[in-house]
């Protein structure tokens, strides 16, 4: 009897051990499956509409149709760089006393205030709702200038807000006007102007765009020299310090409506210009907006392994007039399409594509690439074989990617 009881107890213990092992194995299996499912990490990015530029670097020299403006000494400029002037326009005055510079600043400040208050008084009878809207718009514009640190437009934004505020105060009776203040300011202004009478001035002798010597020293270099330079000669010139004219110049007047950029590059870069006539040019940090330009010359020097490229641009502004020897970016083409990360691309059965997340499934979608750089692909949304659509959720990174697989 004892023997049979011991046998049954051993059998029960063995069954319990076996059952425990099975339960443990089942638990481990479940844990592994949960880890396999929950442990999957997928990184996705939304396919967005974007534009990408095909650019090449080009070092060179900007040249203008310009004439020098003679004048030296302590100069106070009365026109802004890049301002359009006509023959006879007073460009600058020559100071004989350091205090005259301060007096000129005071005169300009008083003229500005007088003009602002005079405009403010011309608001009688204006619609109150319109004045309120103008004040709000001016305030938002001023805040926007502050937020973007656009200090060049700060002065005009302040004047715009003060003008709107003054007009609103007059129309609502909060102010009776500025007659007395204007009379006092006019007296101060006349005194400041009298102190500057009789100064020697420098005037424009022709029409054009003025640029001061302080903003851009005229290069002691003629356009004929750059035109006759070979690619090798231009490359050597760019490696040297380009001399500038003396200090007896007040600036220059650009008489033409276009300018040229003489650049040099290697032959591989030059090959990208083959058949290209219309491009854009920008100079980072100086002229950040890409300006339309035309390729007027492409001369290869096989012996030197270089090419000379000449561009012509018909946009003139203050930033452009400050250009000299520059490292420019030339935009050969601009493409519009759907942008996705380059990391998302896979090749399946010889076809390029990406995996798109649809709910909990992943689907392989073929792509047609318009343009690409080191980080992104730009897809052609019009191509029949392009299966990626705008705002698709593209899988950039994740394990076990396959068409129809779970995410």
Write a structural description.
This protein has 407 residues and is an alpha+beta fold. The chain has helices at residues 2-38, 98-121, 128-147, 154-171, 179-195, 223-228, 231-239, 267-271, 318-321; strands spanning 43-46, 48-70, 74-77, 84-85, 90-95, 200-203, 208-212, 249-266, 278-283, 287-301, 306-313, 325-341, 345-348, 351-358, 361-366, 369-372, 376-379, 393-397. A 6-stranded antiparallel barrel has the order 2-8-11-10-9-12. A 3-stranded antiparallel β-sheet has the order 3-5-6. A 3-stranded antiparallel β-sheet has the order 13-14-15, with no helix packed on it. Helix 2 runs antiparallel to helix 5.
Question: Termini, distance in Å?
Answer: 61 Å
Helix content bin? 25-40%
Largest sheet: 6 strands, antiparallel, barrel
Give helix and strand order, one letter per element, not per position. Answer: HEEEEEHHHHEEHHEHEEEHEEEEEEE
Number of helices: 9
Radius of gyration: 36 Å
In order across it, which strands form the biggest sheet?
Answer: 2-8-11-10-9-12
Q: What proportion of the residues form beta strands (DSSP E)?
A: 35-45%
Count of β-strands: 18
- Give the overall silhouette: flat
**Estimated structural class:** alpha+beta
List segments where confidence is low: pLDDT < 50 over at least 5 consecutive residues. none
The averaged pLDDT comes out at 83
